[in-house]
Amino acid sequence: MAKKYTLNVDTEAVIYLCTKDKRLAKVIAMVGPIEYDLHEDGYRFLIHEIIEQMLSIKAGAKIYSRLNDLCNGDINPITINTLSDEEIRLCGTSTNKISYIRCLTNAILCNNVSLDDFISFSDQEVINYLTKIKGIGTWTAKMFMIFVLNRENILPYEDVAFLQSYKWLYKTNDVDKKSVEKKCEKWNPYSSIAARFMYRALDMGFTKSEFHLYK
């Protein structure tokens, strides 16, 4: 059974963030406790992220579900390697993404990449290794570190969902990398924890209304 993680007002990281950022503290109060578990299969996670690139969550989920059915519920490098490009394409995947799936699969089957080894890698080493694989960029590597490796200090300023909450929280349209890094510097060393609350605020629909710090 996957380990459950809980973030609440008694969590060290949450206490720290609330003392450093009063706006984020308000969001944390609005969201309430967060319970989550990690994606235990890094390969499946990366396949899902490759498929979902540049698509809506709904469209990406539908294509991934078709691929999962094609693999009889067991997406792994060996089952993917037995499929033809046409079989994968019929799931709704583009030609480019098929090539990305092949690159990831071949890298693992040829032992060029061992996802289990990433546990002992630094954040930058994980990014360096993953982005060597065609079709995997910094955004995907950061999602992997947050949702698979549970790294606590990843700032996903490349992520559209995160930026949507960021603009809402700080009442700004300036999402330049340096601007976001400067504004969120106070979250260090718990940027990922802050991001989880930002994602949850979006999921709960809070960003549809104007943010008020004292209301």
What do you see in this structure?
- The chain is mainly alpha-helical and 215 residues long.
- The protein has 2 domains: 4-38 and 154-208, Endonuclease Iii, domain 2 (Orthogonal Bundle), CATH 1.10.1670; 42-147, Hypothetical protein, domain 2 (Endonuclease III, domain 1, Orthogonal Bundle).
- It has 12 helices and 2 strands, in the order βααβαααααααααα.
- A two-stranded antiparallel sheet has the order 1-2.
- α8 (123-130) crosses α9 (138-147).
- It is elongated, with a radius of gyration of 18 Å.
- The mean pLDDT is 95.
Radius of gyration: 18 Å
Helix/strand/pairing category = mainly alpha
CATH class assignment of the largest domain: Mainly Alpha
Helicity range = 40-55%
Strand order of the largest sheet: 1-2
**What is the CATH architecture annotation of the largest domain?**
Orthogonal Bundle
Comma- or semicolon-separated keywords:
2 domains; Endonuclease III, domain 1; elongated; 215 residues; mainly alpha; 4% strand
